[in-house]
Specification:
Largest sheet: 10 strands, antiparallel, barrel
Helix content: 10-25%
Strand order of the largest sheet: 1-6-2-3-4-5-10-9-8-7
Number of strands: 10
Number of helices: 8
Structural class: alpha+beta
């Protein structure tokens, strides 16, 4: 993404729950949970846990094309719902997929032959209309709207007399049969999480006048945190240089019970919008829960060997939304933040998804890159 996007941090918020009978999802949709929506030319993947081998649940899908690129581009984040796998980076996977605009148009037309269907947006449109994350589309009648019923043969349209009776019987027996894709059988074994649309706001808009009441409340909570933990969070942003002096020295003498200055900055940053579930800033700086090990960076891209850079991270507010649809209650997923790093070159081989790197941190004292 171009420099303009690198200066911009987008905050993802949970929108309405996705109803498969009312809403249409595609690879252009940003969402939590559900099954992944792959582009028309991408081979579908069902990744498995690196620790226990269980199929991973789909956690987040983000449509994130790069500025001035001809490619549609998606990131899919998966995680193992097993209790013993919670908080482990090797139990999470991130897959990046891409397709050319013309390939997406052809694939969409062949799968849904409706001449009146609007063409997918240009891959470059996202950069100018970022607030379109989480757009809900009502299914229109005549385009697969509603539940499709089994086609029945009217009595007046019965087989002609010349047709053998045996052929009629065979036809009626085949009405209730359908072909099952092997991928569908595999997906049935995968734990599925409740699905929600993701809406997005520019982080700089969170401090508008209309949010004054929320901001004052957040500031009050922050002061309470400072009092309880014995650390002046507001003085940490500039190294303790503001607000009465001596703040930096005070912090050196009295460290926060639950972490250090990095964790305190994390708490201050999310206090402006505690309900944020995702932060997006390709090429920007992640918001760490604790200080990462010095001199350690994300590994090189496994496909081209190029460097990886930060792109997005999942936030603590997402945890409470991750509930299974099979009645199993909440998924066994606990984390402080999940950091996603992607190939800076966005290298791509047509038809397959590229595995990227993610790092999970569950508490301020846990090492990130392990």
């Amino acid at each position: 993404m171009a420099s303009r996007a690198e200066e911009l941090t987008l905050v993802g918020l949970c929108d309405v729950e996705i109803d498969s009978k009312r809403h249409t999802c595609s690879f252009l949709t940003n969402k939590v949970g559900g099954l992944p929506d792959w582009s028309p030319v991408t081979s579908r993947r069902s990744p498995r846990c690196g620790r226990c081998g269980a199929p991973l649940a789909h956690v987040v899908q983000v449509y994130c094309p790069l500025e001035a690129s001809r490619y549609h581009r998606n990131l899919h984040v998966f995680a193992c719902t097993g209790a013993e796998c919670s908080g482990r980076s090797d139990c999470w996977k991130v897959l990046r997929s891409q397709c050319l605009e013309e390939e997406a148009a052809v694939g969409r037309t062949s799968s849904r032959p409706d001449p009146a269907q609007e063409a997918p947006p240009s891959a470059t449109d996202w950069c100018d209309t970022a607030d379109d994350w989480g757009v809900m589309e009502e299914e229109e009648e005549g385009w697969g709207g509603g539940v499709k019923k089994d086609r029945q043969i009217p009595e007046e349209a019965a087989a002609p007399e010349t047709e053998a009776a045996g052929e009629v019987d065979a036809s009626s027996q085949l009405q209730d049969l359908r072909l099952v894709d092997s991928q569908e059988e595999e997906e049935e074994e995968v734990p599925v999480l409740r699905a929600f649309f993701i809406s997005v706001v520019d982080e700089s808009d969170l401090c508008g006048e209309e949010d004054d009441d929320d901001l004052r409340h957040a500031q009050w909570l922050l002061r309470e945190y400072e009092r309880r933990e014995g650390v002046a969070v507001g003085e940490l942003e500039d190294g303790g240089g503001g607000g009465g002096g001596g703040g930096g020295e005070k912090y050196e003498k009295t460290r926060a019970r639950h972490g250090d200055a990095v964790f305190s900055r994390f708490m201050k940053k999310i206090s402006l919008c505690p309900q944020q579930i995702l932060r997006y800033c390709r090429g920007g700086r992640p918001l760490f829960v604790s200080e990462p090990p010095a001199g350690v960076a994300a590994p090189a891209c496994g496909s081209c060997g190029g460097t990886r850079s930060f792109e997005l991270q999942l936030m603590p507010a997402l945890v409470s939304l991750l509930q299974r649809t099979d009645g199993g209650g909440e998924a066994e997923l606990e984390f402080g933040t999940v950091l996603v790093y992607t190939c800076r070159n966005s290298c791509w081989t047509s038809g397959s998804a590229v595995e990227e790197f993610c790092s999970v941190q569950t508490d301020p004292d846990q090492q990130l890159f392990r």
